[in-house]
Amino acid sequence: MQLFLKKIYTVWCAIVFIGLFILVFPFFLIIIWVPAWHKHCFYINKIWATIALFFVGIKTEISGLENLNSKNQYVYCANHFSLLDIVSFGFSPNSVVYVGKSSLAKIPLFGFMFKKLHVTVNRKSIKDSYNSLQLALLKMGDERSLVMFPEGGIMSKSIPKMTRFKDGAFRAAITKQIPLVPVTLPDNWIILPDEKIPLINRKKMRMIFHQPISTEGLNMEDVPALKEKVFKVITDELNKYH
Fold first, then answer.
1. Across residues 191-203, what is the average pLDDT?
2. Which of 19, 91, 113, 147 is the most exposed place for a label (fewest CB within 10 A)?
3. What parts of the sequence cross the membrane (predicted)?
4. Tens digit of pLDDT for each residue in 68-113?
């Protein structure tokens, strides 16, 4: 009986998320055709995430926003165990550019929107990874922040333990001389597991924004130390929950 109810709940969640996305998609289309408006996709993402989670009964607990200034640019680095992690950043304090895997572009409607407003990357190609990072820096301009999952995708086979971080997020922060913000997402992998046919669990979605880490005056030789510092902050927070 419990399994049956979970299947029904999963179908309801899919209807809500897809249905609401179809409703807001025309607004994404309008923004796409005017590059100067791309930063405003932030508001549509926030509305979509807030309403969808409300209708499926998933409460949110966002902490650490007092550490951030919505007028500043950041590079957000988060653990990545679930596709729900992308939705979570609808609650970031400012407009963001995502760097996501190239397969996201294949999702009907969503993929078109994502590729136009954000950046896709083939992580198996060093050249494509480099070009995607340059494009992300360009799309950020002087107003949008950057969301990167430094594990390079949902890579861990021992969730909630993270895999080794890649350099991209840290190089981006140093290039722009803007702060890195570690972000811990402790529950998303339980709510929406990374499985071929996942069943959704109703649970509070928590998101923790940690203190920004300055990159002012740093160069590429500081990347390893930065990776280690951010990795430790997120790992310590995950250990509090699991």
1. 94
2. 19
3. 12-36
4. 999 999 999 999 999 999 999 999 999 999 999 898 999 999 999 9
- % pLDDT > 70, the chain: 100
Mean pLDDT along residues 210-237:
98
Residues whose CB is less than 8 angstroms from the CB of residue 61 and which lie 6 or more positions away in sequence, other chains included: 204, 205, 206, 207
Neighbours of 53 (CB within 10 A): 22
Domain count, the chain: 1
- Is there a contact between 182 and 234 (Cβ–Cβ < 8 Å)? yes
User: pTM here?
Assistant: 0.95
DSSP letters, 128-192, are: HHHHHHHHHHHHHTTT-EEEE-TTSSS--SSTTSPPPPPSHHHHHHHHHT--EEEEE--SHHHHS
Q: Cβ contacts of residue 207 below 8 Å, gap of 6+?
A: 60, 61, 62, 63, 88, 91, 183, 184, 185
What letter represents residue 91's amino acid?
A: F
Helix (H, G, I), strand (E, B) or coil at 8: helix
Domain that holds residue 164: 2-241
Nearest 5°: the CA angle 147, 79, 234 is 110
pLDDT 10s digits, 106-151 = 999 999 999 999 999 987 788 888 999 999 999 999 999 999 999 9
CA–CA separation, 147 vs 234, rounded Å?
15
The rounded distance, in Å, linking the Cα atoms of 210 and 184 is 8
Tokens of 139: 């799309």
